[in-house]
Amino acid sequence: MAGDRPLLLGVLTYLGIAVAPTLFLWAAVRLGPALFDLLAGAASMRRRRGPQPVGPSLESLVVDLRRLRAEVRGPGPPTQVRRVALLAAYDDVLLDVCRAADVGSSLAEAPPGERPYARLLTEAAIEEAGIALDPPYEGPAAA
Q: Which of 6, 56, 93, 99 could bridge to 60 as Cys pair (CB 3.0-4.6 Å)?
């Protein structure tokens, strides 16, 4: 019985039996979710939704800006490194709010000596756009 079949055909049959389950599992894991989405219609629903916004919302940026503004205007950090880091974070959030609210700003291009003035102009432009940087204090809630 050993000589009725070529050796190469026996080796290929063995490899097919040994490798087929692995290939089937790989295809199910890789292609299964895409096939399921296609059959369930999720792909067409995704196309109809339109582009999703990228980045944080304007509201969360304004909350961050107000928090950092309070830290910048409050008592200074104990070290110069922390002060520089705080101002850099404040400038980054200022620029993010400008992008989200479509407000022009020269803060990004300002040289280090003119950054405080550019920061002041950017804050004024944001407030002119209708975003209050210092909201009025409402006091404790009355019960």
A: 56
